[in-house]
Every structure is written in structure tokens, then in C-alpha cells.
Amino acid sequence: MEAEDLPLDVIYEDDHLIAVNKPPGMVTHPAPGVLSGTLVNALLGRMPLPEQPDFDGDSGYRPGIVHRLDKDTSGVIVVAKTVEAHARLAASFKDRETSKTYLAIAAGQWRADGPVRVDAPIGRHPVQRQKMTVGGAHPVRRRPS
Length: 145
What we know:
Elements: E1 10-13, E2 17-22, H1 39-46, E3 75-80, H2 83-94, E4 122-124, E5 132-134, E6 137-140
Antiparallel strand pairs: 1-2, 2-3, 4-5, 4-6
């Protein structure tokens, strides 16, 4: 992976992690067909990221990446700057101690008289493993507030 001098909207940073507001259109990490212009390329242009032993994930080595946002999705993504921070963040996501909230903005003709709230569990698509779907395998349930 190549380091690139790309602008980043950093909203928090310390010695262990960095939180970046990822813009829509930016891929999180290099993958087949997208080898540059990613968040990881931009981060590597700013700092070294640790190589996590035995953590290659489904798409190969992704330095510091614990979660991702789709290319067209904007929002905050947290990236580990140390091996220890990566292990703790990964465990936090795996144990469902960390949650994500999404806000979708839709346009068009609405038949409702007011705002519409969609509150449905999202999980991995049972056949197309690279996709997520409402009610998929291992749905992520919101914790009661």
C-alpha cells in the first residue's frame, strides 16, 4: 500500500487512535480495482500504521482498520494507531460494546404525514456475503436506550 498526501478531516487524534470524518466517494481501504485514493492511503501519508500479526481480514492487510464505511457513505471512522489499540477496538466491535448509528436522507414523494423512522436490524446477507441486509445473518440489534 502506498502512502499518499490526501486531505483528511480529522475530528480526534491521540497516541492510540485517530477519528476521521470520511467523505462520500472515498473507499476505506485498498481492494481489487481500487489501489489508491483510499482512506488507508491518506492515513499512511500522514503516519505509520501498525501491522497487526495474523490480522489480514477477508480482503487482505488493512492497517489500523477495525470497521469501515461503504464508498458512498460519509461519517466517522475510527482507526487504530497501535497494535494494542487495534486489539481493543476490534474486541469492542466484536463484543457489541461499540455501536454505530446511521442517518439516511431520502428525497422524493412521501405518502406519510410526518417523519418516518426505520428501526430494523442489519446483518450480513445470507448468500451475498459482501453485502448487508435488513434481518440478515447475525443481525445487529440496537441496545435499549
